[in-house]
Structures are given as C-alpha cells and as structure tokens.
C-alpha cells in the first residue's frame, strides 16, 4: 500500500465524508474517490459503503482500519521524534487553561506530545482569565486555552478548539430558574454581576449593557474570582453569564444555570505570545488541534 493510499483510507475512515477528507488532505474529492477505488480493486472488495446520504466502513474496512491505525501512529511518532531532534524541541512548555473542562483536551494532547517529543515536557496550570493573559504576556506561560476576545498587544489568538453553550446564572429562588431556556432579552430581568479586572473588549462581549431590542441592562456589583461572582448570584444580588457545562463543575444549591436559546456559544481558543511562537509551541498547537472536537460534534 502506498503512503498516500494509507493516509487517504485512514482519513476517510475517520471523516466518513469525501469532501471533508479532500479538504483535510488538500486534494480534490475526485482524487480521494479514485484512490479508494484503486485500493479496493487491489484488495478485492469494498472498504466503504456509499450512498447519497452517508458513507460507512464495511466490516472488512473496519478491520483494515483497526489493523493499520496503530502502525500508522507509530510511524508518525517516530518521524515526529526524529524531526524534534533537529528542531531542538526540548525543555518545558507551560500551558494554562481557564476552564476545568479544558483540562481533558490539554492532558490528552500533552501525553501525545510528550511521547513524540520526549525531551520536552508539558506543565499545566489552572488560571483565571485575567491571570492567563497576564502570565502569557509576562512569559510565565507559553500557551493558554481561554475565551476570546483579547485586545492585549503581542498576543496571538489562534484556532478555536471547542465551544460551549452559553447560560444565564440566576438565583435558585428567581422565576427564571424554573425556565428550560432564556433569551437575551431576559438580561433585563436582573442586575448583571460582572467579573472585576477584565478588559473592556472582554466585558463588552460577555456583559452587555443593552438587550438586542435595546432594553437597558442594570449593571450590578462586580467580584474578583468566579466563586465570589457565584456567591453574589446566590445571595440574590443579580445574574451572571457562564456556560451550561460550568453547572456540572460549579453546582450550588442557591443558583441555577439556564441555557440561552438565542445567544452564541462561548468559544475557547489557543493563545500565545507573538514573540514566543517557537517550534515547540507550534508542535504543541498542532497536537492539541488533533485532539480537539470537530465542529460536527465528533472527536
């Protein structure tokens, strides 16, 4: 089997979509189709079931994928390790993340990165948004996973690695807590509790002053630290903005996380210093993107 046939087969086996596979491999869908047909003729039978609605692996195709994938990954790791010897990827890379649900992605990517670059280790740090940007700027971190936007000069906001549904966090006793969803107009129902010390561009993105229909949103107290913000919400001082998933990590009996039905999701992106984009950072970014969930919900 030729290398391009191997890569095409494994990519299609993962994507199960000819156009996405072609985009991933930087070739035309026709080239993908022709390569698979050639491989199927050589093997003697179909590897994929095709219809106008879906693409699926045949039993033989699944077995071939399962047999090939470990060897292919071993080859990739060997090449990456050899390349690292010439790129000089060594030392320590420090990665920060602002949300605990980012840690699984970062940990899995860090394990893969360390196996490919054994002379370089990855250290993880749980940080607040303010601390993430400050420590990145001050060279205490090399890479962060955080919520854009950022208006800090010298900071590159890279690819979005995943997103989470936005939620309004309200006191448990408030009528909105019993709702299945809320709209952005419901911002006007309670004072909005904000995070202290964030940049104006970030504040504008997460803590609006008016609803989409122009209703004024009362600005409530602010607090430094997420637990302090939640304490103010639980005490009935107002509402704040978070993600639905935050409710699984920061559940409290005095608050409720109610999903928005009309607000955009909260995005989490990779960020690094412009001057700190080393070969090691570039390699770690590529590795994290390998493990990031696909926009269609796959992984």
Automatic annotation (TrEMBL):
All residue ranges annotated as the HTH lysR-type domain in the record: 1-58
Listed Pfam families: HTH_1 (PF00126), LysR_substrate (PF03466)
The entry's keywords: DNA-binding, Transcription, Transcription regulation
TM spans (from-to): none
Matching InterPro entries: LysR_HTH_N, LysR_subst-bd, WH-like_DNA-bd_sf, WH_DNA-bd_sf
SUPFAM superfamilies in the record: Periplasmic binding protein-like II, Winged helix' DNA-binding domain
Similarity comment: Belongs to the LysR transcriptional regulatory family.
Protein name: LysR family transcriptional regulator
């Amino acid at each position: 089997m030729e290398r391009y046939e191997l890569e095409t087969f494994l990519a299609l086996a993962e994507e199960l979509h000819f156009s996405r596979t072609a985009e991933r491999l930087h070739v035309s869908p026709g080239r993908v189709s022709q390569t698979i047909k050639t491989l199927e003729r050589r093997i003697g039978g179909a590897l994929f079931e095709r219809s106008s609605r879906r693409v699926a692996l045949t039993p033989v195709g699944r077995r071939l994928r399962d047999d090939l994938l470990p060897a292919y990954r071993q080859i990739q790791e060997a090449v990456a390790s050899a390349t690292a010897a010439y790129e000089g990827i060594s030392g320590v890379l420090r990665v920060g993340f602002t949300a605990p649900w980012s840690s699984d992605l970062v940990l899995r990517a860090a394990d893969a990165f360390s196996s490919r670059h054994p002379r370089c280790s990855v250290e993880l740090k749980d940080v607040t948004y303010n601390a993430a940007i400050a420590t990145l700027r001050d060279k205490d971190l090399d890479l962060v996973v955080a919520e854009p936007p950022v208006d800090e000069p010298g900071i590159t906001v890279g690819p979005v690695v995943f997103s989470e549904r936005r939620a309004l966090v309200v006191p448990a006793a408030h009528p909105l807590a019993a709702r299945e969803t809320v709209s952005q107009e419901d911002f006007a129902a309670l004072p909005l509790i904000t995070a202290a010390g964030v940049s104006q561009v970030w504040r504008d993105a997460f803590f609006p002053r008016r609803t989409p229909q122009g209703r004024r949103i009362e600005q409530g107290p602010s607090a430094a630290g997420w637990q302090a913000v939640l304490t103010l919400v639980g005490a009935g001082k107002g509402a704040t903005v978070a993600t639905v998933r935050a409710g699984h990590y920061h559940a409290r009996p005095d608050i409720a996380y109610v999903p928005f039905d009309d607000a955009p999701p909260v995005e989490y992106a990779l960020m690094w210093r412009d001057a700190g984009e080393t070969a090691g950072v570039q390699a770690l970014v590529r590795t994290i993107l390998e493990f990031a969930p696909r926009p269609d919900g796959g992984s």
